[in-house]
Amino acid sequence: MKDFVIGLDYGTDSARAVLVNAHTGEQIAEAVHNYARWSRGEYCNALESRFRQHPLDYIEALKSVLHGVLDGNKDIAPYVRAIAVDTTASTPCLTDEHLQPLSLKEEYKDNPDAMFVLWKDHTGVAEAAAIEEACHSSETDYTQVSGYHYSAECFWAKVMHLLGTNADMRRDARSVIECSDFITATLTGTTDPKLARMGHCNAAQKMFWSEDWGGFPPESFFEALDPALVPILRTLNANKYTCDKPYGTISKVWAEELGLNSDVIIGCGNVDSHQGAIGAGVAYKTAMINLGTSGCCMFVIPNEILKGRIIDGVFGQADSCIIPGLVGFEVGLSAFGDAYAWLRRTLAYPTVEILAKSSKIDPATRQTLVDEVLDNILIKLGEDAAKITPRLDAPFATDWFNGRRSPDPNQMLWGSLMGLRLSTTAPELYYAIVEATALAMKTIVDHLAERGIVFDAFIGVGGIAQKAPFVMQMLADAIGKDIRVSQTKQSCALGSAICASVVAGIYPTIEAAQAALCQPIIRTYTPNAERRALLQKRHELYRAAGKFTESLL
């Protein structure tokens, strides 16, 4: 039998699709599309922690990657059964009454507040604090599913900020939609907010939706925060759908655009890191670490073992948010690869600002040199950092370049470098930042262990897991557990493909689809006992430095 599925993954910098044989797991084709406006830095201001993405970037990517996997496989297209999607989160956008993002209207086409507010946008810090305070003083503390904290990365903080700081948005917005739900609504032609199927994970982890209190908190809760939230709330579909449920069938427009049958099923959307966990093979006692611009640790626990316990300090905890029937957890770092990218930009300043503009070299040679430096700087730093003999008094860092997500979220914190000397080298700076991200993950793992949550092993996925052996070894040394690296380079897209195979009825459960479609392990990083002992002592310096920087705020 011929059955194929497509997984779509919308990451921070790009979108990708994988075309998968639903019976063998063979990845027939893969396509990647970089967001054009995002790559140019449009609509963003890092100093203000404002990170916005235009919906046209998403729509252009959707066409590009789907054509990318289908155009060369027209013989397979008639056998595509389902498509599922994941995106970053929380990444909401204000819309009109037809679910059209306001930035697709002429009067708002260049207004960042009318665009999707990316997950790492922290412009809503004040609003998050107000929401958190309201929850703590409420009869029901709705932050219990987010470690008794509420982050500026989450849905209501962002919506509240947009409505409270932009009079035009406050007047013209009729609804709001998460990025994953926007893609599924686009593919199905859904234009009625009340018919748009909201992904369960976003609702449960980012929006305070829970069966325990009958859905969303009452309107009176939102009325007290900002009356403008209430009419927005009323447009949202009260039902939430897990990633193994169908959203609907592909619209006639998109079926004709792609050369697909009209009965192709579109699955309900999910969060990228959660789908990545599925694609990696997450299971009880085996956690997934997704290492990209941020660092996410995902794990699941059966309800009968957890017994309703709430884990404090954890960013997200919700039943069925990863695998239906299991309690899913999300913990992690607001900046992982982003911290390395900061050092790359800093060290590349002379290359970008002097060499790239030099009149003493012909343009072709100049660009070749610039590209060579930018492409290889982190590779070279990693190679040289691996040669450094670890020592207790080496430079060290904290990793909060974009605040702290877990444990105990605080988006106001900043990163730091300490212990610098005139002898300090660039590889030592890289070593310190890599070590800081590893120690941050150790802090999370220790926090969970203190609460009785331990793991037998970790599965590493993402670009860093595939390409940065120095980082992965440091991580294994810090947390003291084996880290297995999955063969798949697109774990999130594969996770969506796995979900697509379930919504198509090819497999009865996510677990059954995982057993058939997950990729093998290609490398295992085992902790080095000697460096682990040193890292235990370095962790004390990391924690002390953290307390010091926190005291300055």
Q: How would you sum up this structure, described in words?
A:
The chain has a domain at 337-489 and 522-551: 2-Layer Sandwich (Nucleotidyltransferase, domain 5). Helices cover 40% and strands 18% of the residues. The protein contains 21 helices and 22 strands. The strands form 6 sheets. Strands 1, 2, 3, 5, 11, 12 and 13 form a 7-stranded mixed beta sheet that branches. Helix 15 packs across helix 16, helix 16 (426-449) packs parallel to helix 18 (469-479) and helix 19 packs across helix 20. The chain is globular. The mean pLDDT is 94.
How is the main sheet built?
7 strands, mixed
- Share of residues in helices: 40-55%
In the CATH hierarchy, what is the architecture of the domain at 337-489 and 522-551 at level 2? 2-Layer Sandwich
What coarse outline follows from CA principal-axis ratios?
Answer: globular
CATH homologous superfamily caption of the domain at 337-489 and 522-551: ATPase, nucleotide binding domain
- Radius of gyration (CA) equals 23 Å
Oligomer category: single chain
Instruction: Count up the helices.
Output: 21
Within the CATH hierarchy, at the fold level, what is the topology of the domain at 337-489 and 522-551? Nucleotidyltransferase, domain 5
Strand content: 15-25%
Strand element count: 22
Cα-to-Cα separation, first versus last residue: 62 Å
